[in-house]
Write a structure and sequence with these properties.
Chain B: It comes from Streptomyces ficellus. Chain B: InterPro entries: MetI-like, MetI-like_sf. Chain B: One of its GO terms (cellular component) is plasma membrane. The complex is a heterodimer of chains A (364) and B (533). By secondary structure, chain A is an alpha/beta fold. Chain A has 14 helices and 10 strands. In chain A, strands 1, 2, 3, 4, 5, 6, 7, 8, 9 and 10 form a 10-stranded mixed β-sheet that branches. In chain A, strand 1, helix 2 and strand 2 form a beta-alpha-beta unit. The longest helix of chain A is centred in the middle third of the chain and has 28 residues. The radius of gyration of chain A is 23 Å and the shape is globular. With 533 residues, chain B is mostly helical. Chain B folds into 2 domains: 246 residues, MetI-like fold (Orthogonal Bundle), CATH 1.10.3720.10; 266 residues, Orthogonal Bundle (MetI-like fold). Helix content of chain B is 76%, strand content 0%. In chain B, helix 7 crosses helix 9 and helix 7 runs antiparallel to helix 10. Chain B is globular. Classes of the chains: A alpha/beta (364), B mainly alpha (533). Chains A and B meet through helix 1, strand 2, helix 3, helix 8 and helix 9 of A and helix 1, helix 11, helix 16, helix 18 and helix 24 of B.
């Protein structure tokens, strides 16, 4: 940056009456690497869906002395892409929210430093997708599945569909709404689920059948779930007329949680044979100003307290074996025995092409 | 002149150039300009370009058609509740696009109001997009054109009538030339807004329609295809530049000297059936196009009685925020005030410099000031991300970044609103003051400022409104411990469950009311001051 520009900025700052441009920046403007004082803040960069109870974050401060600052930067894909763009000068210390569909992009671009978290022995090997190098640590899992409107199928005396095969049957014609995989992560998850189920050769034929069976495509989860789906509170208001929607296995408990008064039974159910597993990871950003604090935060995130707080905050499942699910989940959630999965490398190689093929098959 | 130039260099040109450069250069620094041709021959990209252009043209034409009679009514008639109505028509302009989209879906979507009444469905058609653009931009025309119209001396038209001109002839020869620049400026703004429309197209257009802006967002944020995004950014730059060039050519260089008068003297009660019918017609169009979608929103926010509003005061209403959503209101207002101050300072200085000087360079600067309207918020946001990352400019986590980004969009409004009025100030007044020994600053303060105070307030209103509803840049940089209203609404809409949906509607309603109140206060200030003109 040239001197003239610096002068210009200085003049600008003065003129605007902004005496300290970098005020409120916390530790962002200071480099902790000079043996100076230990920074007191650790910054967590995440997507918009990140949530944690203030009480739990306070607990972390009590244990370690660090205050957590959360920086949300868009939906999951956008947040990862920003982390890639700011490689080397990251916006924070820890990144949380890269999932298995985007993992390869993050790892190939080298935005994470390896760190083996304390307490990783309580996390199953199946979700540790970077077990050799520990550049990322699994934090939670969730399933993307078809949800159904219980009332609709009870009124019609029709059994709700349970598998991908069912969805293409004439009995369920014109009932399903899915999201555009190009613009929505549940949409992408559902597409990957079909690719896992029918293989590289079979999934296109399956989608032709779905199209013939009247599948509707919405651009975002919000539109599909809150406008088109007949089983959700928002969809009921908007008089949605599709009793099947691609959403999450945790959506029914959420419908119960946010209903006034709370119903005894969830209004929606989960078609457990249509699920694709998402795993979300946290990693230490390369160039972090407070790497020590970052490591402590990653340890804390797979600790029991944080893991048990997550379900009702982000509607996901804990990865730690010793974390208990809240009653709401055990009563209204679905147990998905065998969700479909696709290896991250395979997703990275094929994602764009699958999406393009899907577009020309389904949207044209 | 120096300050606005520096502001734009640091917060606009530098970030945008950086992100575009990253897309057009390989890692070893060689330029890959061949990529431009590759991208521009792709049929999907050509489709996007074509749609962007024609829908913007159609939106501008439709908006002018519907809003110009409204501008006349606001300028020339006085009727009870006019101030309130003026605030009402400005509200749509500051609503986050998420909310506009949702409201319009409730109106023209499946089982929306129109569907229930007459079986009309417009969702995923271009009509929904066009209507939403009119809804959004109505205020632009009312405030730019109506603001000037109300200050034109009606006696000039009367003089022409006395000299034998027909009513239409007098209007065509006297009023129309005086209004020309303002109409052109308004049309230009509406075109730019529609051209770069993003949220509305995303929600109402479905996958059938994508504007250039939406495509840039997709290529950058979702696909990380920087080369394609960079080419599209350049295309948008070129297109906006071309629009501005056309504008500079068609609008007469020298805005005529206008005799501006106090608006209070020009407005009178409508007389005769024709005028009453016009007033009635305008009120009806406002009710149908602007009030109805807002009404649907309000109605939905009260579906649960006051329950949704009560929920807003709880911190843990779903844990979406670290503070109660209600606090977002205060945050939004603080940001908007800061952004307004910055935009007025930069825009005012720029407008003053542009009035003072002529020549090619200055005209070029004038056009440059408009560019932020035509460059995607996504490009600017990503540019901020990769450029403002080192001291003394590590602003990425500083609160000031939000008002700065919002001011960037506000400045063009300030300039557009103030320039026609400033140029219309008789230069001889300034010369006289200078001859009598006043410094340039003093001349500006004693001569220009009193005459343009009204324009300043209109500009401030615009900047404030833009900031309050601005979503693209804010969502990029707002922190969860102090979200703004639009960001809060978007987050609530993005979560399942009745309570979140209802809270989003309730917050949108509050946002609406806050805007209306702020704008009403502004009207009040204006009314008090107008006597000094």
């Amino acid at each position: 940056m040239s001197t003239t520009k610096k002068i210009a900025v200085g003049a600008l700052a003065a003129a605007l009456g902004v005496t300290t441009l970098t005020a409120c920046g916390g530790d962002s403007g200071k480099d902790a690497g000079d043996g100076g004082t230990k920074p007191k803040t650790v910054t967590l960069v995440s997507h918009d869906s990140f949530n944690a109870s203030p009480a739990v974050l306070k607990e972390f401060t009590k244990q370690t002395g660090y205050t957590v600052k959360v920086l949300k930067s868009g939906d999951a894909g956008e947040a990862v892409n920003k982390a890639v763009l700011t490689k080397g000068a990251p916006q924070g210390d820890v990144f949380f929210g890269v999932d298995n569909t985007l993992l390869s992009r993050a790892l190939d671009n080298g935005i994470f430093d390896p760190y083996e978290a304390k307490g990783l022995d309580r996390v199953p090997d199946a979700v540790q997708l970077d077990k050799d190098k520990h550049r990322v640590t699994p934090v939670d899992t969730g399933e993307i599945c078809v949800n159904y409107d219980k009332k609709y199928f009870a009124d019609k005396k029709l059994a709700p569909p349970q598998t991908f095969d069912d969805l293409a049957k004439p009995a369920y014609k014109d009932l399903l709404v899915v999201e555009n995989p190009e613009r929505s992560s549940p949409g992408l998850g559902f597409l990957l689920g079909t690719a896992a189920r029918y293989g590289d050769d079979g999934w296109q034929d399956y989608w032709k059948k779905l199209k013939a069976n009247g599948v509707k495509v919405a651009d975002s989860w919000e539109l599909a779930y809150n406008q088109e789906f007949s089983g959700s509170a928002g969809g009921k208001k908007a008089k949605g007329d599709r009793p099947l929607v691609v959403s999450y296995a945790s959506s029914p408990p959420v419908e119960v949680l946010y209903a006034e008064p709370r119903p005894a039974e969830a209004p929606t159910g989960v078609s457990t044979g249509t699920c694709f597993q998402q795993t979300e990871f946290a990693g230490l950003l390369t160039g972090a100003k407070n790497a020590e604090g970052g490591k402590a935060l990653i340890d804390f995130m797979i600790g029991k307290k944080f893991q048990e707080d997550m379900p009702l905050q982000m509607f996901v499942n804990p990865v730690a074996k010793d974390a208990k699910l809240p009653a709401l989940f055990t009563e209204h959630g679905a147990k998905v025995a065998r969700p479909h999965t696709v290896a991250p490398e395979k997703i990275a190689q094929n994602r764009e092409q699958w999406i393009q093929t899907w577009s020309s098959l389904v949207l044209k | 002149m120096a300050l606005p130039v520096a502001f734009f260099a640091v917060f606009f040109a530098y970030p945008v150039a950086a992100i575009t450069g990253r897309g057009l250069r390989t890692d070893d620094g060689t330029w890959q300009l061949g990529r431009i041709g590759d991208v521009l021959t792709r049929p999907d990209i050509l489709d996007v370009l074509w749609f962007t252009t024609w829908q913007a043209l159609a939106s501008s034409a439709l908006t002018l058609l519907i809003a110009l009679p409204g501008a006349y009514v606001f300028a020339r008639f006085s009727f009870p509740g006019k101030g309130l109505l003026r605030a009402v028509v400005t509200v749509p302009f500051v609503l986050p696009t998420v909310v506009v989209g949702t409201a319009f879906l409730a109106l023209v979507g499946r089982r929306g109001l129109l569907d229930e009444l007459w079986g009309i469905r417009l969702d995923a058609t271009v009509w929904a997009i066009l209507l939403a653009h009119v809804f959004f931009n109505y205020a632009v025309v009312i405030r730019t054109v109506g603001g000037l119209w109300s200050q034109l001396d009606p006696r000039q038209e009367e003089a022409a009538r006395v000299l034998g001109a027909s009513r239409f002839g007098a209007w065509r020869r006297v009023t129309l030339p005086a209004l020309g620049p303002a109409v052109a400026a308004a049309a230009l703004m509406v075109f730019l807004f529609s051209y770069t429309s993003f949220g509305i197209v995303q929600i109402l257009g479905g996958h059938a329609f994508a504007t250039l802006e939406a495509e840039i967002y997709r290529q950058t944020a979702q696909l990380l295809d920087l080369p394609t995004a960079a080419v599209l950014t350049l295309v948008q730059f070129a297109a906006v530049g071309a629009i501005l060039a056309v504008h500079a050519r068609t609008v007469p260089r020298r805005e005529a000297m206008l005799r501006l008068v106090d608006p209070a003297l020009t407005a009178r009660r409508p007389r005769g059936t024709g005028q009453w019918a016009l007033l009635g017609g305008v009120l009806a169009s406002v009710a149908l196009l602007l009030v109805l979608p807002l009404g649907v929103l309000v109605q939905r926010s009260f579906d649960g009685g006051l329950g949704y509003y009560r929920a807003l005061q709880e911190v843990d209403a779903g844990g979406t925020f670290l503070v109660p959503p209600a606090e977002a209101i205060a945050n939004s207002l603080e940001y908007a005030l800061a952004a307004t101050a910055i935009a007025l300072l930069i825009g005012g200085l720029a407008a003053a410099a542009l009035t003072r000087r002529a020549g090619r360079l200055v005209r070029g600067f004038d056009a440059l000031l408009m560019l932020p309207l035509g460059v995607s918020a996504v490009t600017v946001g990503f540019g901020f991300l990769i450029t403002l990352d080192e001291p003394p400019l590590d602003l990425r986590s500083s609160w000031i970044l939000v008002p700065l980004a919002q001011a960037l969009v506000g400045v063009p409004f300030v300039v557009r609103t103030m320039l026609p009025v400033l140029r219309a100030v008789d230069a001889r007044l300034r010369e006289a003051a200078a001859v009598l020994g006043a410094s340039p600053w003093r001349v500006w303060r004693e001569v220009d400022l009193p005459l343009v105070r009204r324009a300043v307030l209109v500009a401030a209103g615009f900047a404030f409104a833009v900031s309050l509803g601005e979503f693209g840049a804010t969502v990029f940089i707002a922190r969860p411990d102090n979200p703004t209203l639009p960001v809060a609404v978007a987050r609530l809409l993005g979560r399942p469950g009745d309570l979140n949906y209802g809270q989003a509607m309730a917050l949108s309603t509050i946002l609406m009311v806050v805007c209306a109140v702020a704008l009403l206060l502004l009207e009040r200030v204006r009314a008090d001051r107008s006597g000094e003109l």
